[in-house]
Fold each of these.
Amino acid sequence: MSLNAPSDPAAAGATGNAESPAPKPLGVAVDAVADPDRSHLPWYRQLTGYHWFVFLIASAAWLFDCLDQRLFSLARIPALGALKPADTTPDDVQAFGKVVTAFFLIGWGVGGLIFGALGDKFGRSKMLMLTILIYSAFTGLSFFSQSWLDFTVCRFLTGLGVGGVFGLAVALIAETVPTGARVQALGLLQVLSTVGNVLAVGIKYAIDALEKSGTLQAGEGWRWMFLIGLTPAVMVVFSYKRLKEPAGWLKLKAEGKLPTGSILVPYKNLVRSTRWRRNLIVGSLIASTGVVGLWAIGEYAVDLQDRVFRGHFTALAKAGEIRADEVKSKVDNGKNLAYLLNMIGAGVGMWLFTKVTAVTGRRTAFAIGFSAALVVTAYAYWKMETPTDAYWMMPLMGAAQLGPFAGFAIYLPELFPGSLRSTGTSFCYNLGRFAAAGGSFFSAYLTKLFATGDPTSSLPLRYSAITMCAIFLVGLFTLPFAPETRGKPLPEEGDEGAPQRGFEPVPVAAAAPAVAGKA
């Protein structure tokens, strides 16, 4: 079967000749159609060339989004240390690092709410391209920061673009690939996000080496890390013309079923319906649990490692086992290795979560994931004392904390109909950003509250993180109220009390008369 021709002879030209494929309707990718002849194949063989193209672009958008997030995590403290005002203590830098993170997360949340609604109104692919341009541009502009203020502003504006990507990317994939491949494709999207994080570590390694060799000015490497964040914009140039809207979305547009008017209309439609409102609340609480757990707790494991590694290698230097000038490089290399192991664990955890949710259901998988995150995170913050501890604890922490993120990509699009899918998915995922921002402010408060007066002590960071682990209980208590979506098709528009029907990629033969000539 041709990848570019409709499988239905009725989609042939006006003469009825099945050997002559119908002209491709403008805006419709004809091989973004579920092919029943492939349904018995393994999920990856059910995908056509265009399915793979959509998957790769959406996954790359999220991969580079995660690259940006991780560059910020790795460069945050060095940047604030270089830009700090006079008479600023190390504890002040750590505390303001949490404030900058909070503003980044607020921008992330606002961007998600805005672009989620715009994705339902104007199209997933168009808005996805725009969000990539936004986060690329303002990441690059962070290179020019001269103070804590303009650095914070750049991170907030970067967050606007970063926040829009997830809901748009998962909606695009969910509505494009065949039903039999949806769970695995969305889980793999999240697994590939770890590649972005690993690339960030590789960039950090390279920048550290260039600083050490004198190629880059010492203390200025963080600027070049942000400048590299401009590169995802290149992807837009090569893909925006070929990436089309899902046929199902185009059908809804032709039938006049998409939200119109104010950007608030999709949200009004969500809360007006008992079914969608319930799903919105449940999805938001589940997603917020994971996002707060990662960004208000797990995010600061990098800072804990800095204290652990620095204390360990400084002690070795004092004992004469290493030279004093080797301490910094060993600390940096140790942290980079620990983070790489963390991401390997995350990739394994997300793939296992995808497997578990396909077999046992969404709720059981989340229950296992949140329970593991609670235990592993609290234990790691309490017991991590040496580099060896970090090397085995961080992979477990990555698997436990990031495993449920595969579930967000799979579960959230299954809660909402096509006309509200981007809005609902983005709202649930990005409400967690606001919660995480609040969590970061609260964590900063706890860090100050538990301060010992010793700037080298890791106890304030440990105590605040362990206290924050209570957030995982929120997700566990929410799960009994969550609808189980395993084995069910994506919901579509209709009476909220009616049996759930499928929202599947629409055959081009059926969609063409309604959408021909529409972009």
Amino acid sequence: MRQPRLLQGLPPDEHRKLVERAKIRSYGVGEAVYQEGDPADSLHFVLDGRLAVSVTSADGRELTAAIIERDEVFGELALVVTEGIRHATVRALEPTETMVIYRRDFDHLRQRHRAFSDLLVDMLTVRVIRQSVQLEEALYLPVQTRILRRLVELARTYGGGREPAVIPLTQEDIAGLAGTARATVNRILRAERSRGTVSLEKRRITVLDMESLVQRARLVRGTVDVRLV
């Protein structure tokens, strides 16, 4: 069984104990791993595939908040919040396989092996860093830069750094990821189409000129943001 990168630092004995208690789950396209309001009782390591995290807006729309891919982890807050509920829905964007660890099993291991407490700290640290970057972008970056950054990230995810990179997401999805309105995304994407950097089709955006997007997404108030280097 393929092992997530985050687990590869565990000592062999602790790694074996974790795998013995884990369950493997498979999901088809569009299938929910869990939904908003479900009990929060497990975390998932992504072995293969991609998933979308969505939240419900005040007017009842489902907004995409993040894309999760292979080697990433989600649902980790279930390990630190007792009797909590899920605050987002996670659905498979393509055939997906995860390794599931339930809180009771992880707690059992953590009480006996220090390595699992360290693993939990690592997972929560990754979450805090990611949310800090998102907050910084929302506060200090213009919306055009945020949208271009999401396009670059998604093109790398789906295209592996090659052109053309086909992103099988809607403009509504991009709006959720960039923290803006669909109309704004549409306006900026049409401008990029005129530049020749993207082409637009129904439920699909194709990146044609990655370098141009990267160069403009890196510029923040006249300085280069090293996270896009």
Amino acid sequence: KFGYMLSSDGLEWSEPILIDLDQHPNKWWGLTRTPLGLVKEGNQTYTLYFSAYNLNFYDIPDIWSAKTDDVFNGYFASIGFIRLSLY
């Protein structure tokens, strides 16, 4: 999930609006990381770029006490994008 808020003056902000990427029909990622940019395409359509991992490494038992990086074999990080329509 990621969220955003809107402001016309930088002082007063809307309530957070959450978008659940886990329900995306073309989901290839296992763990979403960082929203990188939002590009206005026109007609209330935006492209959101984000970093993600193909698998969720939090599912690896004892990930934080692993002695080597071998636990990450088969994992890759990548940049993805989705198109959003705001109505």
Amino acid sequence: MKESMLIKQNYTMGLTGKVMLVSSLLFFLMFLPGMFSFHTVILLSMLLIPVGLIWMVWMVLTDKRDVNADSGDNIPIPR
């Protein structure tokens, strides 16, 4: 049970990291070819920032991990 929770937690963190990495890579790739004008880059970045903020708030709000879950420190001692 705890192993599956750990895997789920690592997957969600990894997913957030992947989204941030891809968005930052796309942002830097837009500067390289010179096809896009500077105003297009600014507009796209202005669109990306609120999307990223909404994503982070959504990840926090939809976090299904139990706050009061047993961390494993207070294991009952068998008598």
